[in-house]
Amino acid sequence: MLTRLHHVIGAAFRWLVVGVLGALVLGCESLPPAPTEAASPDYRYIIGPGDNVSINVWRNPELSMSVPVRPDGLIAGPLIEDMQAMGKTPTALARDMEKALGTFIRDPVVTVIVTGFVGSASEQIRVIGEASRPQAIPYKQKMTLLDVMIVVGGLTDFADGNGATILRPSEDNRQYNVRLNDLIRRGDVSANVDVKPGDVLIIPQSWF
Length: 208
Hints:
This protein folds into 2 domains: 52-116, 2-Layer Sandwich (wza like fold); 120-208, Outer membrane lipoprotein wza fold like, CATH 3.10.560. Strands 7-6-10-8-9 form a 5-stranded mixed beta sheet, with no helix packed on it. By secondary structure, it is of the alpha+beta class. A hairpin with a 7-residue loop joins strand 1 (52-57) and strand 2 (65-68). The protein is 25% helix and 23% strand.
């Protein structure tokens, strides 16, 4: 009786494992592969909290400054109090500063350069799960999956690299399958794909 019970339990466990694996395989197959090319040629950086911006006011060095963008997205300096910087391109911020300074000086010419990049969540690539160093990475034009994996130090020993996915908020949270094992451990460059600002790379743990 006990032996028969062991056989029943063993068979049930095997069917459970098969069912789980089948669900995982079907789940992976239901996701399309990530497009090889996704970078936008007209991409412009959007300033975010934590960025450092260098502001030069032509012929007015006393108004020039280098300041961090506060957590609330604002900056402040001589003649300017609490100006919104978050969500603007450097050029847009420069034009807004020219308008504000125009009250005090004649025909100001302002140049804004971002010198330290953190960026808002919409400008970052976030890596979670079985990466060696999960983190948020500032996006750079023409950044690829391989660039991201170099920054995070590759995969852990427990990663299911070919089961990884990209969640893309810029496309209504669409998900794509990516092949990190093939790319990193097998050197298959065909598995390298572009990433986009705001992407979330999710690396699951391998079941076996």
